[in-house]
């Protein structure tokens, strides 16, 4: 029998609980109906637990070990339940004594303090969720600590109390009762406790076999989320005040959780304005992580899926939001680091905001592709709900996104297909739109792939750049060559080669001449073939975009498919004032592409 816990035992107990949750991921996703029926609670908790498994370590004392666990949990926390769990562990660490051996009384104080931390982190704690089971388990341990019992006996009793609390969750939340399920987050914590207890009792954890219902459309589930975006930010700094940050964010949405310490805080909120949330947080510290999930999109995929094929692209593809929503196109956002803060392209950073922030800063922003893990999480969700997944990425010659996505896809399913469009911006957007239209027509997966592959070489983009400043600052052009070009007042026309590499297709000495050179190229393309579709994109210059729209509408004989502002990723290297025409030509056999 165990009268105390040491560092090693505590570590292995946490790993036992974490692995139990990871194994239960699919079952937890299946019963996820609150606060949003988006089927990702299991995935979010599993991701949080995986961070604990991979990053925590056995230290000299139990308190130090629990510190590594709490840090790993906070860093890897995802979703509402993941962040609540991370804050619970953080509170446990704070309230654990620094004794070499953890007595039952010390452990009871730790879990009770953790429960208080978890409650206080939430803007509006809702009973019938994970927090209810956390409280029940912690109180059961605290009540038994003075009865002279062993850890094993106390934890077995506390597990029974946690099970009773879990079973009562449908009585507290009508949405659970109407769907005949317990709360997914509460079930996740109970599963953790089962694994934790098994290790303390020197037993192998065996998950309970359940036949869990898959989410189905119905009156109780068929309710769209109140706010669109589940927004999470990891904030680092000195003297961070969680209460002040929580109060300041309370008007931005609901499901607010602010968890962490005075140097590291994880924020979770459901909001319609993730960009404003991040702008607010940037004043408090350095945002080192951001994750924004489109809950409306997830809801539609689960309950109102239109097609058998999921079409995915990255945020470099310039395509209007209305088109994305019409065809349920999924987007992988690229990252921008600006003033040491991490932003998501087109989600928490747009082109206008980028140019405003560039004024008065010395370090030019940089861009990066998302992590393999983040992409894999997104693709795993899609693979669970679609028969096929097709991904069209920005040119591999311009970004590492293609390789990252390929690696992530291979880890999820060998059937996911990733294609390098060898394009960017509006040209990439037109390819994605054409692929979506083929999917909507009911074409087979193989037919859509073939269609896109042929279409790539029939798609071009020509960009008129007002100066070379952005290209120099972003590193796309050497300072010496750029300085000469600016001295000569060159106005280059930038395009992409057949391999997808950036190239200067023409050089002019004025913007009107730059436009004339682009128009001449479009005329030559028209002489060889017909334009199936074209788009006008720009960087904070609606006047030049309107000029191009009028010019090419007259030349081509039809209006552009759309006119829009470019991705902030592209704006970084092209610069303010650039404008482009992207063209998708018909195939050689006359079939429209």
UniProtKB/TrEMBL annotation:
<dbReference type="GO" id="GO:0006071">
    <property type="term" value="P:glycerol metabolic process"/>
</dbReference>
<dbReference type="InterPro" id="IPR050270">
    <property type="entry name" value="DegV_domain_contain"/>
</dbReference>
<dbReference type="Pfam" id="PF02734">
    <property type="entry name" value="Dak2"/>
</dbReference>
<protein>
    <submittedName>
        <fullName>DAK2 domain-containing protein</fullName>
    </submittedName>
</protein>
<dbReference type="Pfam" id="PF21645">
    <property type="entry name" value="FakA-like_M"/>
</dbReference>
<dbReference type="InterPro" id="IPR033470">
    <property type="entry name" value="FakA-like_C"/>
</dbReference>
<dbReference type="GO" id="GO:0008289">
    <property type="term" value="F:lipid binding"/>
</dbReference>
<dbReference type="InterPro" id="IPR004007">
    <property type="entry name" value="DhaL_dom"/>
</dbReference>
<dbReference type="InterPro" id="IPR003797">
    <property type="entry name" value="DegV"/>
</dbReference>
<dbReference type="GO" id="GO:0004371">
    <property type="term" value="F:glycerone kinase activity"/>
</dbReference>
<dbReference type="InterPro" id="IPR048394">
    <property type="entry name" value="FakA-like_M"/>
</dbReference>
<keyword id="KW-0446">Lipid-binding</keyword>
<dbReference type="InterPro" id="IPR036117">
    <property type="entry name" value="DhaL_dom_sf"/>
</dbReference>
<dbReference type="InterPro" id="IPR043168">
    <property type="entry name" value="DegV_C"/>
</dbReference>
<feature type="domain" description="DhaL">
    <location>
        <begin position="8"/>
        <end position="198"/>
    </location>
</feature>
<dbReference type="Pfam" id="PF02645">
    <property type="entry name" value="DegV"/>
</dbReference>
